[in-house]
């Protein structure tokens, strides 16, 4: 089945990793990225334990959602189970990005849902990113199932004492979701220093989501 493996998708994983480092979304080897080729069903996932600046396309691992390795010269990310569980549960998801950024992780440290306080977050994520109610060890299928259960139809979730998970129909959208999640977390925390964060009314979130659907196309926005 080698012919079904697409080099340009490996390059996309490599380039997205570099973009995340550039944007300050990840440090060293932390965090992992994957995308789904909807034609073959194959998952392209970043390798385990490699710095994003040293990952080459041949290190990107191609696997099935049952974690059968198809191609790649490295081990798949330690969080391969979490990525696979998301793809199995959400047939609309084409990309998964898992990061450990500071501000989103602060919400994970106090096991707190992150409410929308910025318009970009309201548009592409919705009213909130929920925090999983139970801690699960990294690298386990249990963490994947916990993340999926909390994610529901949303496109972002906070992992307790761990980090964040963002999904989207494509990798550009998943990256955008992870960026606005972190920005919204930062704004919420700074707002708490200054006063009481004021939340949107649900009708305004609905209107913004409607606008985003019309403006960016249905594939680019969250479902809630
Ligand atoms: Zn992690």
What features would you describe in this structure?
With 224 residues, the protein is an alpha+beta fold. Helices cover 40% and strands 16% of the residues. The chain has a single domain (2-218), classed as 3-Layer(aba) Sandwich (L-fuculose-1-phosphate Aldolase), CATH 3.40.225. It has helices at 7-22, 80-89, 102-109, 119-124, 141-151, 171-194, 202-216, and strands spanning 32-36, 43-45, 61-63, 69-71, 95-99, 114-115, 128-131, 156-159, 163-168. Strands 4-3-2-1-5-9-8-7-6 form a nine-stranded mixed sheet, with helices on both faces. Strand 7 (128-131), helix 5 (141-151) and strand 8 (156-159) form a beta-alpha-beta unit. Helix 2 packs parallel to helix 5 (141-151) and helix 3 (102-109) crosses helix 6 (171-194). The longest helix is centred in the C-terminal third of the chain and has 24 residues, at 171-194. The model is unreliable at 220-224 (pLDDT under 50). The structure holds zinc ion (ZN). The site of zinc ion has 6 residues, from loops.
List the helices and strands and how they pair.
Blueprint: H1 7-22, E1 32-36, E2 43-45, E3 61-63, E4 69-71, H2 80-89, E5 95-99, H3 102-109, E6 114-115, H4 119-124, E7 128-131, H5 141-151, E8 156-159, E9 163-168, H6 171-194, H7 202-216
Helix pairs in contact: 2-5, 3-6
The structure holds zinc ion.
